[in-house]
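A reminder from the course coordinator: this example appears on the midterm review sheet, so study it carefully.

Given structure:
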């Protein structure tokens, strides 16, 4: 039976609630709505998501051709000085603008790529890209799952009770968040971490900003499907993973 498509993660490109500019990652595809136009990329074609400065060729080429010609005509007395100076200065600025380029986030595919210009790359967009890259690069399971903290887990029934709650938001940890926490503090030996595969959760994962340090953390909203549970990590397992 074919797996039902479900939304895993979502990010607004410019600001929250702007449906004309957003990214969605599902179990089957990456969907990007950019300036109201929708593009879809099947998961199996994705290579990575990256950010870079893209040079603008048209301003560079046009200014590179016209500015030297106008400058030569200016020194030869073929053009009126004032308009010629304006054109020369404008050409220099156009070349600079084109050379500096614009910031874009890129969807790299197996045989192509797509650029999406943005003024800024928000922390939410960066977290979304990191999240997607973890899964399309086939990282080890420990790095791909999310970790839900629980205490005094003794049997599977308790795990089922925790994940079956519907109207609840759960703050979870990424692999690197868990690694940092393990390095920074002495964890209670009774604490367990439920390992959750985001591709099988059945609910959406959002990144929200903490009030204390303004750090982005993944949040699972809603019920977690039992198939998403890939294991439970105890204190001994943490030591083996990070020591």
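Designed residues:
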């Amino acid at each position: 039976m074919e797996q039902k498509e479900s939304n895993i993660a979502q990010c607004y490109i410019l600001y929250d609630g702007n449906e004309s500019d957003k990214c969605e990652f599902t179990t089957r595809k990456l969907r990007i709505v950019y300036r109201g136009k929708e593009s879809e990329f099947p998961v199996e074609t994705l290579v990575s998501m990256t950010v870079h400065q893209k040079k603008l060729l048209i301003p560079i080429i046009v200014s590179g051709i016209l500015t030297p010609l106008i400058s030569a005509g200016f020194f030869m007395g073929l053009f009126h000085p004032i308009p010629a100076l304006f054109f020369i200065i404008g050409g220099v600025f156009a070349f600079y603008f084109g050379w500096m380029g614009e910031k874009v986030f890129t969807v790299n595919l197996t045989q192509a790529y797509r650029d999406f210009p943005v003024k800024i790359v928000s922390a939410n967009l960066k977290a979304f890209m990191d999240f997607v890259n973890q899964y399309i690069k086939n990282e080890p399971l420990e790095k791909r799952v999310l970790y839900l903290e629980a205490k005094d887990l003794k049997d599977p029934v308790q795990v089922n009770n925790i994940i079956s709650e519907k109207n609840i938001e759960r703050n979870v940890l990424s692999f690197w968040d868990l690694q940092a926490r393990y390095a920074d503090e002495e964890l209670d030996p009774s604490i367990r971490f439920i390992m959750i595969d985001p591709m099988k959760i059945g609910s959406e994962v959002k990144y929200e900003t903490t009030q204390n340090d303004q750090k982005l953390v993944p949040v699972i909203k809603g019920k977690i499907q039992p198939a998403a549970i890939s294991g439970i990590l105890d204190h001994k397992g943490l030591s083996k993973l990070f020591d």
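Residues 56-100 form one domain. Residues 57 and 98 are 6 Å apart (CA to CA).
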